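Session log. Operator J.P. requested a structure for one protein chain; no other inputs attached. Running the standard single-chain path with token output.
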Amino acid sequence: MSARWTHDRPISLQAFMALFPDDAACAEHLIRKRWPDGFRCPACACVKGWRLATKPWTYECAGCGKQTSATAGTIMHRTHLPLRTWFLAAHLVATHSNGISALQLQAKLGIGSYKTAWFLLHRLRKAMVDPDRGALEGVVEVDESSMPYHAKSDSRRFGTQGRSPVGKLIVLGAVELKDGGKGPGRIRLKAASDFQGATLRAFVESVTVPKSTISTDGNTGYRGLKDREHKERVIGMMPAHVFMPWIHRVFSNLKRWGMGVYHGLRRCYLQAYLDEFAFRWNFRRRYAEAFDVLLGIGMAVGPMSLKALREAYKNPLPRQQP
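Structure written below.
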């Protein structure tokens, strides 16, 4: 067994199912996670309340009378799925190194419809982005790339050559360097509509802290970054991955992951898949805690309806026609 798994081995599926045998056990876990110091009303912050016997895992506030369940205000808000199905889905998604499709999730959990499995999976993807996450700092490699995408009219489009955005999925990426550049840290990925300088600079300034050192290739679009040290390297004939190995490894793994797991990505939900890949990368050495982190973020990001989810991931990028 690899030495890594000695300290970072996720709980087995059998052990997980024994730990959460039913909805009641899942609800108790949510209650402990949501109110570790005891019940606190989300409406008036009153700490006095009582648990209702007539409604499962629901409290009533003694101050304002508001009733709050363990799932109220979370991504599981008003869910029709059993809590145990949510927990199993979160465990599979968080601990599976390569990811899992909605079709696979539907089959493994016995979910009745594909639409329900798809909605569940996308809400979990929404919970992969912590609204309070910190920006990258220190030395950060930044670059841009493009990938083919699936269209309804054909199986795959590869787009035009060069810097033209026509027929391409454009991805901007940044990776935080650790140990003096010997290893990668956290990453950020963002879907973009073009390679223009304003787009590139806005991305860098949104994902890094001031005073960071930004390492890029010879793309002049990065010039003029505010409050950041910019180290530009004109690569010339030398392969780019020699000078900027980690961001190119991120892009290489992203493309293989997109083609291998999902057989190509569609334009509409590109940012959702980028968020999933970033979560997996950032927790690739922290599998043991990934489930609780995913569950915790899901309790913080709030509820989302199917309509709101589609609007949130609605393609903000112009459709470039070849």
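Operator note: The chain has twelve helices and ten strands.
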